[in-house]
Amino acid sequence: MADTALMPIAGHIDPVTVARDITPREDGRVDLIGLPKRRIAELFEEAGLDAKQAKLRAKQVFHWLYHRGVTEFDAMTDIAKTMRPWLAQRFVIGRPEVIEAQQSDDGTRKWLLRTADGHDFEMVFIPDADRGTLCVSSQVGCTLNCRFCHTGTMRLVRNLTPGEIVGQVMLARDALGEWPKGRMDVPDEEDVTEYSADGRLLTNIVMMGMGEPLYNFDNVRDALRLVMDGDGLALSKRRITLSTSGVVPMMARCGEEIGTNLAVSLHATNKDVRDEIVPLNKKYGIEELLAACAAYPGASNARRITFEYVMLKDKNDSDADARELVRLIKQYKLPAKVNLIPFNPWPGAPYECSTPERIRRFSEIVFEAGISAPVRTPRGRDIDAACGQLKTAAEKKSRAELDRLAAEKQAALG
Ligand code: SAH
Ligand code: SF4
Q1: Ligand 2 atom closest to 210 (CA)
Q2: Which atom, in ligand 2's list, is nearest to the CA of 145?
Q3: What is the pTM of this model?
Q4: Do 164 and 115 meet the contact criterion of CB atoms below 8 Å apart?
Q5: C-alpha radius of gyration, the chain, whole number
Q6: Cα–Cα distances in Å, from 208 out to 27, 114, 124, 226?
Q7: Span 347-385, pLDDT tens digits
Q8: What SS3 state is found at 261?
Q9: Which-ligand-closest: CA of 316?
Q10: Contact (CB, 8 A) for 373 and 367
Q11: What is the DSSP secondary-structure string of 17-38?
């Protein structure tokens, strides 16, 4: 097991500082997954190659790792046979460990994954007729406590590293059998192996799994750069969406340094309700959030910001709420679409889902104002894979601790 200390919990406001980018293993070998090409070259040089060799080898290895998905140095056929054991003695090609894989009746798949230091998190794949979306986690747990979200009832265990984040996408490609084929050691065949979305299962990525991605900004950025790199996983930034609950101070950097599509978990149109259901609102209010959206680099009519709105019965679902939502979007002149998410229940949740008629009426009001507002079909509810249902055993441990304490107290009283 790697010696990874738990991340300090940075409170509710400031971005959590970044874990180191290299996770040394007990045997001293370094995991290359999650590292940019430049860093791989540095490591090769530190291990004894001259600068030119290191750069060339890093380029080859990078391509094999991220573009071809190999998990053994021995499979890197354009690297000299004698060089491959040299690599294997010093480096590893890691993947998060798969603990459990489940499949929903509707085809949604959920994987329970484990980090090298033993923390569990989840990833979900949602196949549709015209696309396949991978829902990726950025943290184990979440420091924010949105009241309708199951992940929010977990404590934050730690940030995921770039390797653990990009590793989810790589595992999905492993599971779906979607690495480009062909022989890399044959020149000119490169074009054939070019990755395109055509006919593929995994076409889109959403940073909507466990955690708040903008509280783990550097690692999410570094991982997504590997996903977007043309010589890496080569997925277009237009096919990636990052969802935030509204970490205003990080939004401009998100647009500048990551540049993916943005989704914002708005969920309410006035302070009282948003304070209650998305407590981060007490720090960054609706006006501030919408102003940051208006200034989001790269937003345009062609690339709209998605406002996510969870439908909670008698809480945020009235006609007046729908009209206020329209008014706010127009006031800030936002290139926006709205995604209405029927609330997904979980044990002990303090809310109910709005009725289908209510959701339909809400959607109509927003549509009539010229703003697209489709209702998202819940997916994977039967395996707790739907939005907001993700949660791993991290909290159950503290629950077990609580049970033990309660039992001790009981014994003392008896
Ligand atoms: N932390 C980020 C991304 C993860 S949550 C964020 O909050 O945006 C992805 C989406 O699912 C968010 O819009 C979130 O508010 C929503 N969600 C959370 N719990 C839900 C639930 N029980 N039912 C429906 N949607 C939920
Ligand atoms: Fe965290 Fe997002 Fe859940 Fe809120 S909705 S608790 S920010 S994961």
Answers
A1: 8
A2: 6
A3: 0.88
A4: yes
A5: 23
A6: 34, 18, 10, 18
A7: 889 999 999 999 999 999 999 999 999 999 888 988 888
A8: strand
A9: 1
A10: yes
A11: PPPPS--B-TTS-EE-TT--HH
